[in-house]
Design brief:
Layout lengths: L3 E5 L9 H7 L3 E6 L9 E5 L5 H8 L4 E4 L11 H15 L3 E7 L11 H13 L1 H16 L3 E7 L1 E3 L8 E3 L7 E3 H10 L12 E3 L1
Parallel strand pairs: 1-2, 1-4, 2-3, 4-5, 5-6, 7-9
Antiparallel strand pairs: 8-10
Helix pairs in contact: 1-6, 2-3, 3-5, 4-5
Bound molecules: NADP nicotinamide-adenine-dinucleotide phosphate.
NADP nicotinamide-adenine-dinucleotide phosphate binds next to strand 2, strand 5 and strand 7.
């Protein structure tokens, strides 16, 4: 039987190549969206809002893993920790273990060895996007406190281009400045069956 994955944010800049890559690899998909199309044999769309606990539960029911690449609209307050909190709660209730989440490379954590330039970049994010960064820090704390098999992927700038096929991964500092969303999709899907970065926060780039 093929595995089913739940996707949150599957139509965003970061997430929009994930469903295609998942289908290529033989997974079936449930995708949360506020604006669903008609579901087909390949993707089951679940209409809902990621800030709503019941919608998340409806999404992840019957799935083997969850990938979250949600992005908050600029007109709204960032809500990353609420989405992850509902997801963790739902996954615990339904006995789902694997959770893969996207965040920004500007998230600085204990043990990082960022270059001076990357530290400056992270500080600018703290200064200009403090509400977002607080949400991202809170999301990380929720993940750490959970018993899930999570991976928090730290991303640089995204380019909407064909994948380059080579992906650098590092744990303490950004290995590069950009990544294509097709390569993010490849990395995210490859993590579904990998234990290498469980409970880790890898940076990836091209
Ligand atoms: N873009 C970048 O350059 C970049 C760089 C580094 C890190 N990141 C990080 O990557 C993550 C995703 O960023 P992004 O740029 O891809 O964001 P984005 O394009 O704004 O994400 C839009 C996606 O989020 C979904 N979404 C938004 N609000 C929702 C809600 N209330 N309920 C359900 N779904 C909702 C949308 O679904 P529907 O519209 O279908 O409902 C859509 O699939 C974020 O954590 C961001 O900080 C982004």
């Amino acid at each position: 039987m093929n595995k089913k994955i739940a996707i949150i944010g599957g139509r965003g800049t970061v997430g929009k190549k994930i469903s295609r890559k998942a289908l290529e690899k033989g997974y079936s998909i449930k995708m949360l969206t506020r604006y669903p199309k008609e579901s087909g044999s390949e993707i089951c769309f679940i209409k809902g809002d990621a800030r709503n606990k019941e919608d998340i539960k409806e999404l992840i029911k019957g799935c083997d893993a969850v990938i979250n690449t949600v992005g908050h609209p600029k007109s709204e307050k960032p809500f990353y920790s609420a989405v992850t909190s509902h997801t963790i709660e739902g996954m615990k209730e339904l006995g789902i273990k694997r959770y893969i989440v996207a965040t920004g490379a500007s998230l600085t954590l204990n043990g990082d060895e960022k270059t001076f330039l990357n530290q400056v970049g992270a500080n600018l994010f703290q200064l200009f996007f403090s509400a977002m960064m607080k949400e991202k820090e809170k999301e990380y704390e929720l993940l750490k406190a959970s018993l899930l098999d999570w991976t928090l992927i730290r991303l640089p700038f995204i380019v909407d281009k064909k994948g380059k096929g080579h992906i650098k991964v590092a744990t303490k500092n950004m290995p590069g400045k950009v990544i294509t969303n097709e390569d993010i999709a490849s990395f995210s899907i490859s993590q579904l069956d990998s234990k290498k970065y469980i409970r880790c926060t890898p940076f990836i780039s091209n």
